[in-house]
What does this fold into?
Amino acid sequence: MNLGLEGRAALVFGGSRGIGAATARALHGEGVALSLTARSEEALEGSLAAMPGAQALAADLTKPGDAEAAVAAALARHGRIDLAVVSAGAAQGGSFTELGDEVWASALELKFMGMIRALRALVPPMRAAGHGRILVIVGNNGVQANKAMLPGSAANAACLAVIRGLAEDFAPHGIRINALNPGPTRTDRWDGLVARLSEGRDPAEVEAELLGAQPLGRIATADEMGRLAAMMLSDAADMLVGTSLTADGGAVRRI
It folds into this structure.
């Protein structure tokens, strides 16, 4: 896309699959030097094959200290972190009356607290450098709650609140933080959702019903989201500060 990102360095939390991996691929195509994290370096083997020269780092955002270690390793490799992506966390869905405390705690621990730990690690070196861009991959159910996925909706809404609240503090230091809220996207999570909803029915039939409810008649690909994320990290998006951009093909009905 020629976004003017060549020569910059990026750290992608959650770069092994889905939108995180797709964003990393888009940045790699722009000439960005990459560091990618997953819970294990082995999980990053597929991403590394597609992005020669990328650094693989093991980091579990549910564990205090892992985010700081990943940031330190990325700085040691590239000398700086100009761009950062936080794309980690998913939550179990189900009926509100059947979800136990552990489901809610798990959703908040990985998605919300994982983001908090990543931000706490990223901000000091970016502030010292006087610049940086951070994009958190959140989700459209943070702005339009889904009764079948309330733990994820709650975690996403909390992420959006913190992003908006911190943006004004970060901006004077040259740091831009924003959120991308994808709608349903064709990843392994989508495949899992279709499988759970099928319950003996033909998965293709269930998927056709789900797609029929989408205004575009389809859902996004991970690469579409990755390209949009890369644009939000570029100088073209310099005036986005604390912005929550929903990209779901019109599924969320709000002005």
In short: The mean pLDDT is 90.
